[in-house]
Batch of 3 targets.
Target 1
Amino acid sequence: MRRKIKKGSQDAMRKNYFPDFHRMGLIDRYDEGMNPIGPHGGKRRVKCVALTEAGKRLASAGALDAYFAYSRCIDRLLGGQINVVFRILRDSELDWIDHAEYAFFASGIETRSDFSVSVPEAIDLIKEYRCLTRAQRRMLRVTLRGDLEPTMSAPRRPDKRDLHNWLNEARQVFSLPGQTAYFDARGGRLALTRARSTTAGLARMLLSKSRMKNYFQNHAASRRQGFELHHIVPLAWSESEAQFGILDDWKNALYVDGPSRARIARNGNGNVIMEPRGDDIVLKDPAGGEVCLESGKNAAYDAAKQGALLEHNRKILDAWQE
């Protein structure tokens, strides 16, 4: 690998590249006793690594499918942030989001912090932020810098970082979605991919608003305050343009309330297994954790369509296991 990329020592590869490759799901790491090391695994020395099944698929995929597979790895590394940016840009009038808007608002979406916000709340805040003058934005930063600066009487704590470190961390995360198939990165902004030769079909699907219309028509539902369209198997898990089309389907979606959506997000969007419970739907993760969506209360959907949703979900999950 060092010969291939023509930079870095072996130690640098182990310390700088391999942890990210591991968190992306591309490799497994082992210590000198051939014991597996976890993705965030402490200070044990890495003796060797092995490609995972996802790593093998990426290594053998054609150029376009490799682009999608790599995009899924980026989403895994970022803990679902690709889906966060998706939801902001696809379900609002916003055509782009910049680094400051990501740091101040999007980075707080459905977190466990005190400043956690929902996607609709973040969208409203971004719109209000854009109404500020340049002078007001400068004063906002001055205020934040003073408020976040640790002092001797208020020492540094994990939940109180200075503004520079906060913005720098957000910048590192913000730079990665632009490497995926889904976003264009230009001039410090992220926008949904526009039509180009390699991803023309994807661009049409990304920019289409028909998915919301199709959902509401099939479920005889209408917009509700505090509800959001949730893709059960996340769009960012696609490993080809064809898979994206299968996932971006009304049968892979539910219109759910904010608290339920937040619980799923905090579980890494892992509640992808759909099961019936009367007219209600239970979304489970592989470990058995569940989020129950009560029809009419937590989810606006037509219970008569439950069979179609369950069949589509089973087909998706079976295809992923092939």
Target 2
Amino acid sequence: MKRNLFFLQIFATLCVALFATSCGQTASSDADSGNRVEKILQHLHNPQSKYVIVVSHRGDWRDYPENSIPAIESVIRMGVDMVELDIAMTKDSVLVLSHDRTLDRCTTGKGRISEMTYDSLQSFSLKSAHGGHFGYELKIPTLREALEVCKDRILINIDKGYDYYDQVLALTEELGVTHQILIKGGMPLADVKEKMAAHKNNLLYMPIITPANKSHQPLLEEYLAGEPQLAYEICWSELTPVVESAIERVKASGSKLWVNTLWNTLNGGLSDDKAFMTSPDEVYGKLIDMGATMIQTDRPEFMIEYLRSRGLHD
């Protein structure tokens, strides 16, 4: 009997130890998650940092429906630094994740999102990246749901976020994630300043510049003449002297350089597909040599593997 009690005591002690270890690991994991966001922000706000911030376009859309919660969770597990999400507004003013203005391509429904209530959207399911049914039902998530998943875990670029600036900011302030959110656009600097002057706290902002576009040239001059921006997104279909000059001036201004490897017309042929089919050195390596420290990609896992091999990502 005493022997049985002895073993029971040992068993109980082990259970307590395992429970404490489990709780400690969870707390540590949560702390590490928060620390990682802070580390990414440190790199983001440091134009001298060589760390390359990987931005995943619409989440992991190759394995899950684009702009879905599982697509976000997947890139967080990969170690992606920022996830790009698209938003639209329903008829009853609910912000949801969707790149398209209509339901036709990405869901089992049809029609314009702006003409439907949020509840009516829940009768449709998301489709896979290849247009078929995903295998189990996933609904269009709200921006609130996405931000709750991302909080303290990953930065977020909300595409089309400027269109709904006040509504997005109110939500991010409520959830305590404003510092994690980046939006971008081609708005004149004066308009952006006026918008932000109306609020105590603001989302991060980045101008988008296509140097070969003549209408963008005055915009670039306007921004470069002011205070250094956090970053500039530079797009080009051909790497001309005009483009090269814009890139060099952006770097010299004390701002970070964001480039896209999504498709050839955004990067003069330096796309993810080329990197995958030939060599990442021939694509990602060239962009890094040009000074890119923020890259939006459709192949985040492939890119991270390459960056880690060069000591440019943790």
Target 3
Amino acid sequence: MTRETRVRAHAKINLGLRVLYRRPDGFHEIRTIFQTISLADDLRISYSRARSTSISIGGDLQIADNLVERAARACLDEMRLSGRLEFVLTKKIPMGAGLGGGSSDAAAVLLALPVLAGRSIPLERLLLIAESLGSDVPFFLLGGTAVGLGKGEELYPLPDLPPRAGLLVSPGIHVSTAGAYKDLGAALTPAAAKLLDFQRSAFDPLGSVLHNDFETVVFPQHACLESIKTKLTKSGARPASMSGSGSTIFGFFNNSETARRVVQSLSGENVYPVTLLTRARYRSEWLRRLKPHLSTNLWPPRSRYAR
């Protein structure tokens, strides 16, 4: 029997990102606030039992080392299952732009595949599998607004933010995350002041001035990014910042009418109108799309085929 579903893998932005220091394990200790937004990839999943595992990924792009396949194999290993998996991935989230598209696609597999396979993986185990795939992946198992500590995998949910209309401007510039961390290493400032600033922003993520440490090294290399941020700020965006290590710049406005007017002033740029996606809406959409295969409305989604 083949079971199928179609889900949406939502993007994220970083409402502030402070890099504190390089850790003994080679990674950097960070503080950030993750936020899901309405922009999303489309992922179709088909699963059927088989004696051996085969995975195919179709879509508009061929992506090397696709996280969808890695997530699928990790999930099947955890469930001790084999099967035939067919994915069709339609990318809407710009790649390499600091929006977590690949990480969200991976998390979508971790949430949907156990439901189709008739198994249950506790959230604690899903989070560990997600962390093994990438530091941003665990966040997409939760959605909404959350503080990210450590490498970003240590998560603490925050109250949902009110809906706000926003714009993403993605100029198609690829910024190497590893390169950005390397460039930032020589310019790291003491952590104490950053922690105090971050704590203030955590209490009011949309009302404070957001600081993304990567802007100090990315903007000098790509002056157009700073120009876009300045244009958004002058147009009334509060807040406006770069997401992740770049290169997407976002801005949020008091109303959608203002956002629509600003789109016209950004002609020639890749602009994506978005809204903030609360945790409640994020999970509600997941449960609605998986409803034919669910037994309850608990989180993570629970399969009606589980024995």
